[in-house]
Amino acid sequence: MNLPYEVTAAGMLIITLIFYNYKNWLDLRKNRIFRDILLAGSIFLAVDSFVEYLAGLSLQSGNIFYCISDVVKNFFGALIFYLFLLYDLAVVRRMRVQYLWRLKLLSAMIIVVSIARAGLSVMVCLVDESAVYIHAYKTIHYIQHGLFLICMLTGLWYLLTCTRILRKTERRIFFWCHIGIIAADILVATGYCNSGVLSYTLAFISIVYYMLLHNIDQYRFRSSGCFGRDGFNLVVKEKAHYKENFACLGICISNTESITNFCTQEEIKKLHHDFGKLLNQVCNRREVYHKHSFEYVIMTKNIAAAEKYHKILRQVIPSYVRMNDKNISLVCGFYVLDFADASFISRDFNRIQHSLRKLAQEQQNRDVLVRYQGERQKEIQQDLEALSVINNKIANHKYRINILPIQSTDAEGRISYELLPDEQLPDGTPISQEKIWEIMQEVGYSRDVNFRFFDSCCQYIKDKKLLDKNMDRIHINLAPFKLSGIDAAKQFVKIIEKYEIPFDKLCLEITIDQTVRYESLREGMMYLKKFGVSLLFDQFGVSVCNLKQALNLPFDAVKINHYIVCTYCDGRSKQLKYMINMLLANGWRIYLDGVNSETQLSILCDLDISYIQGNLVSAVLQNDKSDILFAQLGGRE
Questions:
Q1: Deepest of 136, 269, 380, 632, by most Cβ within 10 A of its Cβ?
Q2: Architecture, CATH, for domain 2-215
Q3: Phi-psi region of 68 (alpha: psi -120 to 50; beta: other; left: phi over 0)
Q4: Where would I find the beta strands (DSSP E) of 461-604?
Q5: pTM value > 0.85
Q6: Residue extents of the structural domains in the chain
Q7: In what order do the strands lie in the sheet with 247-253?
Q8: pLDDT tens for residues 209-218?
Q9: What CATH number does the domain located at 219-372 have?
Q10: How far, in whole angstroms, is CA 231 from its chain's centroid?
Q11: DSSP conformation class of 412
Q12: Interhelix angle 374-396/346-361, nearest 10 degrees
């Protein structure tokens, strides 16, 4: 009897199905199909075992039950083999429209053959056991198992030829599992083994898939119990591949600074655990993602479902939680975004989501739902265009360089030049250098691109022979993450030596922000200073940073932002004078940015500054009226 095989296989599959449904798994096509495989296999084996059990009890109606058993095996076997093919295609993402006609043709053939075999099975078992029907039944039996063989071989071919998605270990697992199923199918088709062996083999392979490929938690965020950012990106990548639309509701905890200052690490973990548990209870647990430290995302089918969750969550999320005799406030902001708004491009979707997250974190009213529309959409669209321009530059390794003159305030009137990236949107709108550095860092190419840009600047200096024009210094604008550690500094030194540029003729301008790692930055700066390279603190006065640590960095000079200069010249603030006194006490040369008119220059002449930069300097040098500028500066020694 086949009963022991099928009972054992049914029990194994049902237990695996229970564990698989209990476990969190990403909403990927392969995971949904694998669930269908387990479900179809469990139902098939359970029904078949029960029917054969009834056939053994009822000797008079035995043929009827065996006929039913054969029909059940016929249809469910065809379904399971077809699902295995779909699973293989989903693993390697070969379920696009151009492949569907082949699947439809194969599924139509399987359905027709399965119906024909079921009809012949009924005829042979219940109506007429003539040689004609038996021969026809055996023929259609071979044809059906041949189609099963085609399903497995087709899936195996796609799995083995797709080296980009699958690792070598995964390809080996799929290879031997497919070989096992193919061998069992051939043995059953030729009559060397009964159908119970094939059922047992399919159940065993399904369990192997679960244990080796699906029984993992690599996408889970441990503190909250939700899926993490890697899992979210994987789902979005698949949706983009198939042009499949979805919507997401973002929940941002805004008062992160007060929470991190007020709570211990254990309390923060407990907060995330409770917050994740609440979201999993309200929403489908396979839709909830812990994307960033204080940002959660719920993936839904459409905007309407996301809005529905927003109405529920804004009421059920508490305003504060009680923990260790502390009242921890929860200020939440919400945003909603549709994948179609990003034209099914995952990179643009992540960029839009990043911008909406910033806006949602500024919201104090949880009833407000930030949307991608209106002026906000235009601003974000400009960011996407800037990202496209910069990605194109990265791909082609071509960078535009802008030159801005810097004028000294001493009697010699020495001229320096600042080299910085100069990119524009398709409509001609310039992209600020801060935006360029920000985008480069976000796209993940910052380190290589920064070295290439620095290399381009050094090549430009040599090709244009800027140092032969009696230049004081050449300034090159850098972002702080470009000079983190000695290794990065050594790379810059190699590039400078490659173009034989004197070290004392270079000044690197560095902007300090909240992301700076001061110790590694200090190491890189000290290494460059040993060669005589000057270092300038750029954008002083508006960049958010740890001022005490920033003032202790080994800079030679500082450039005060144009906004501070403008407010001083307009009489709105005297902050500039106090800044200059503080920075002079630090032993730094003072640069002023944004000197755009002669009126501003007359106001600034009394200050102890070394260099000025702005539209006025550019216009004077362009018109060759530097003597007038020297006279206005007073020709200070």
A1: 380
A2: Up-down Bundle (1.20)
A3: alpha
A4: 474-478, 506-511, 534-540, 557-560, 589-593
A5: no
A6: 2-215, 219-372, 384-633
A7: 220-221, 226-227, 288-292, 295-300, 247-253, 332-338, 369-370
A8: 998 888 766 6
A9: 3.30.70.270
A10: 9
A11: T
A12: 130
